[in-house]
Amino acid sequence: MKRLQIDVQNPSCYVAIWALGLLQAIKAEIIPFEAGIWTFARPKIIQELESHCVPELCDILQTLDELDAMNTLCGKEKVFDYIDEIIKQLHLILAKYSQEYHFELMIETAK
Questions:
Q1: What's the total number of domains in the chain?
Q2: Number of Cβ atoms within 10 Å of the Cβ of 29
Q3: Is the pLDDT score of 2 beyond 70?
Q4: How far is residue 61's CA from residue 36's CA, in Å, rounded to a whole number?
Q5: Which domain holds residue 34?
Q6: 107 domain residue, yes or no
């Protein structure tokens, strides 16, 4: 298994950018709605992010596990409308927390 380690001064900014990319890919139908479940909405990931990111961002990320169920119950267009609202919220978070944007990335293979 490979491990991704990110050293950031401002994790909320970096994670919001990552979430925007995920949502854009879902909306473009490049990846499925359930990608929200197996990325940010996994309990282990949410717990890790809660100790490093602002609460409003974590609240948004926790809702991503509902995208697939919402699609089943309400249809794709409603999900896309919801994604647009989430994207607006993420833009606000980025505007608020993008003052310090610097990160370093290291990928290592676990032994």
A1: 1
A2: 10
A3: yes
A4: 8
A5: 10-100
A6: no
pLDDT for position 100: 64
The reply to whether 30 falls in a domain is yes
Q: Which residues is 107 bridged to in the sheet?
A: 4
- Residue written as token pair 């499925």: 32
Residues 6+ apart with CB under 8 A from 26: 32, 33, 35, 36, 67, 83
Q: pTM (2 decimals)?
A: 0.82
Length of the chain: 111
Tell me the pLDDT tens digit for each residue of 27-67: 999 999 888 878 887 888 889 899 989 999 999 999 998 99
Domain membership of residue 74 (yes or no) is: yes
Question: Is residue 53 a part of any domain in this protein?
Answer: yes
Distance of CA 40 to the CA centre of its chain: 5
Q: Tokens standing for 54?
A: 């602002």
